[in-house]
Amino acid sequence: MFEYIKGSLEFIGKDYIVVDNQNIGYKIHTSNASIADFKTNSEKVTVYTQLIVREDDMSIFGFSTREELKMFQLLTTVTGIGSKVALAILSSIPIGRLTGIIVSEDVNSLTKAQGVGKKTAQRIILELKDKVDSKMAIIEPSLISTQLLDNDTEEAISALMALGYTKGEAKTTINKVKDSCNSIEEIIKKALVFLSK
């Protein structure tokens, strides 16, 4: 119904703002990140909005960017995620980092958001990993390294076994060298150097 609302910022609550537009005050539920954005330009704000209608309630949710609104809309498509939980997630985790968490399937980081347990985090990742814009993802370097190594360890072991080493030799050696590596090729190369000593 409302694409956006423009007006002056009249009040900031814990998880909402009030925007005055032609002497009508709109109560708009929003995230911590958007509240911070609105504070920097309180005279005239543009809030990208979605009206949520239920049997006993009509609420406006809005954000300082279209990207955050889109993420909110995506989160509310996930089974069992309502508008309040979606807002709590966006208030706990900045959108770029949230996108990175979903893209990299980082369940543990997602469970740090209020109202999100392990099963809910897994469901969010499963349902949204192919829908989010990966270009917006901010992924922690340590997380990339850890996940890369976890995924590639078995492949590196198989490669060394194909070269005649036992599984035990391969696994022990890879565990010794993998922490200083950033790719499967580097793991195998360093493992071979170690084994040839």
Automatic annotation (TrEMBL):
Gene Ontology BP, a term: DNA recombination
Name of the protein described by the UniProt record: Holliday junction branch migration complex subunit RuvA
Residue ranges of the region described as Domain I: 1-64
Domain notes: Has three domains with a flexible linker between the domains II and III and assumes an 'L' shape. Domain III is highly mobile and contacts RuvB.
CC terms in the record's Gene Ontology section: cytoplasm; Holliday junction helicase complex; Holliday junction resolvase complex
InterPro entries referenced in this protein's UniProt entry, alphabetically: DNA_helicase_Holl-junc_RuvA_I, Hlx-hairpin-Hlx_DNA-bd_motif, NA-bd_OB-fold, RuvA, RuvA_2-like, RuvA_C, RuvA_C_sf
Subunit annotation: Homotetramer. Forms an RuvA(8)-RuvB(12)-Holliday junction (HJ) complex. HJ DNA is sandwiched between 2 RuvA tetramers; dsDNA enters through RuvA and exits via RuvB. An RuvB hexamer assembles on each DNA strand where it exits the tetramer. Each RuvB hexamer is contacted by two RuvA subunits (via domain III) on 2 adjacent RuvB subunits; this complex drives branch migration. In the full resolvosome a probable DNA-RuvA(4)-RuvB(12)-RuvC(2) complex forms which resolves the HJ.
Keyword annotations of the record: Cytoplasm, DNA damage, DNA recombination, DNA repair, DNA-binding
Subcellular location: Cytoplasm
Record Gene3D superfamilies: 5' to 3' exonuclease, C-terminal subdomain, DNA helicase RuvA subunit, C-terminal domain, Nucleic acid-binding proteins
General function of this protein: The RuvA-RuvB-RuvC complex processes Holliday junction (HJ) DNA during genetic recombination and DNA repair, while the RuvA-RuvB complex plays an important role in the rescue of blocked DNA replication forks via replication fork reversal (RFR). RuvA specifically binds to HJ cruciform DNA, conferring on it an open structure. The RuvB hexamer acts as an ATP-dependent pump, pulling dsDNA into and through the RuvAB complex. HJ branch migration allows RuvC to scan DNA until it finds its consensus sequence, where it cleaves and resolves the cruciform DNA.
Molecular function terms, GO-annotated: ATP binding; four-way junction DNA binding; four-way junction helicase activity
Principal subcellular localisation of the protein: cytoplasm
Recorded superkingdom: Bacteria
Lineage: Bacteria, Bacillati, Bacillota, Clostridia, Eubacteriales
Residue ranges of the region described as Domain III: 153-197
All copies of domain Helix-hairpin-helix DNA-binding motif class, residue ranges: 73-92, 108-127
TM regions (residue ranges): none
